């Protein structure tokens, strides 16, 4: 077997030019190792992209759960506050009759002595609890907070107006515990016109006189 001699010189001795890379040399052991390395880098890139996508999905789930928890807490707090206000309104509604008696006694000058101290203390406690009294003569009539028990007409009003407070109203915040019971006066211009006498009635009266 004859020995194989390969010319590995990079410069061609005859032409003096650089030789192109030998395909056989490129396909040596180093080229074989480069191919698996590139495949490993591509696989690692795919795994990294998949891991990032999964992490983003988990982060979205976490944010959604956090938002749901925040909304749940707000709803619980809102319901708790509504229940607290309802219980408070129920208790204070039982005291309205007593407050009415205190108000009537004050109007008649009978709120004196120990009764006055007790009455004012009760009014102070209910006010601290959020109970607000409303309804004054001259207020514009509002059917949402007023209950009209008497109705009339007046020349000195331009809109339906509460002219007399028959029983004050009470509220807690926006909740109306009892509407104010009032007498209402409308402008005189709103007074319905009196119906005119019909001609038939006059004729019948004249005929009756003639018959007599």
Topology:
Elements: H1 23-26, H2 29-93, H3 96-107, H4 113-128, E1 131-134, E2 146-154, E3 161-167, E4 169-172, E5 175-178, E6 180-187, H5 199-211
Parallel strand pairs: 2-6
Antiparallel strand pairs: 1-4, 3-6, 4-5
Kindly list the characteristics that best describe this protein:
6 strands; Nucleotide Exchange Factor Grpe, Chain A, domain 2; 5 helices; elongated; 52% helix; alpha+beta; 3-stranded antiparallel sheet; 212 residues; 3-stranded mixed sheet; disordered C terminus
Descriptive notes:
The chain has 212 residues and is α+β, with helices and mostly antiparallel strands. It contains 5 helices and 6 strands. It has helices spanning 23-26, 29-93, 96-107, 113-128, 199-211; strands at residues 131-134, 146-154, 161-167, 169-172, 175-178, 180-187. The strands form 2 sheets. A 3-stranded antiparallel beta sheet has the order 1-4-5. The protein has a 3-stranded mixed beta sheet with strand order 2-6-3, with no helix packed on it. A hairpin with a 2-residue loop joins strand 4 and strand 5 (175-178). Mean pLDDT is 82; it is low at 23-27 and 204-212.
Q: What is the string of helix and strand elements? A: HHHHEEEEEEH
Low-confidence stretches: 23-27, 204-212
Most strands sheet: 3 strands, antiparallel
The level 1 CATH classification of the domain at 131-192 is Mainly Beta
Label the overall shape. elongated
Compute the CA-based radius of gyration. Answer: 49 Å
DSSP strand tally = 6
| CATH topology call of the domain at 131-192 | Nucleotide Exchange Factor Grpe, Chain A, domain 2
The number of distinct helices, counting runs of at least 4 residues, comes to 5
Instruction: Give the helix proportion (percent range).
Output: 40-55%
Biggest sheet: strands side by side, in what order? 1-4-5
Please state the second-level CATH architecture of the domain at 131-192.
Roll
């Amino acid at each position: 077997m004859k020995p194989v001699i390969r010319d590995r010189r990079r410069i061609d001795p005859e032409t003096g030019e650089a030789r192109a890379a030998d395909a056989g040399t490129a396909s040596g052991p180093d080229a074989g190792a480069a191919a698996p390395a590139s495949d490993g880098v591509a696989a690692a890139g795919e795994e990294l992209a998949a891991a990032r996508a999964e992490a983003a999905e988990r982060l979205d789930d976490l944010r959604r759960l956090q938002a749901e928890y925040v909304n749940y807490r707000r709803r619980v707090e809102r319901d708790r506050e509504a229940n607290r206000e309802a219980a408070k309104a129920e208790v204070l509604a039982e005291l309205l009759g007593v407050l009415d008696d205190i108000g009537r006694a004050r109007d008649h000058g009978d709120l004196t002595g120990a009764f006055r101290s007790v009455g004012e203390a009760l009014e102070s406690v209910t006010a601290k609890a959020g109970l607000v009294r409303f309804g004054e003569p001259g207020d514009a009539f509002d059917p949402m907070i007023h209950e009209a028990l008497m109705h009339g007409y007046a020349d000195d009003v331009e809109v339906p107006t509460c002219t007399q407070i028959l029983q004050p109203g009470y509220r807690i915040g926006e909740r109306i515990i009892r509407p104010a019971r009032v007498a209402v006066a409308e402008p005189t211009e709103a007074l319905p016109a009196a119906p005119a006498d019909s001609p038939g009635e006059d004729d019948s009266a004249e005929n009756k006189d003639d018959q007599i």
